[in-house]
Design brief:
With about 120 residues, the protein is mainly α. Helix content is about 60%, strand content about 10%. It is built from 5 helices and 5 strands.
Amino acid sequence: MATKTTEKKAAAPKKADTKAAAKPAAAKKSTATKAEGGTKPNALQQPLTPSADLAAIVGEKPLPRGEVVSKVWEHIKKHNLQNPENKREIVADDKLKKIFGKDKCSMFEMNKHLAAHLKG
């Protein structure tokens, strides 16, 4: 009988040891990703300078690509420029015609047109 109790006592510390060993490994992973992520901004975080036509909508100072897209969407919603029958289609006003180069644009092609008006 003494052997069964000894085995149980010996088994319990092993579980605690594996949990303790697992915690530092998880902590190492999170610190490694923070160090790698904090060194250089990715493409969506890099400030880009808008062209004069795009600056009429988003402002002249450099902005990350994500903020530029958000400000263009604010302009579209504020001026009710989405086609009511097809919400994926944007009906361009005078400012957006200069950026898109046409009267209507799909929301999926909008980023392609915006990229042509942003410089790093």
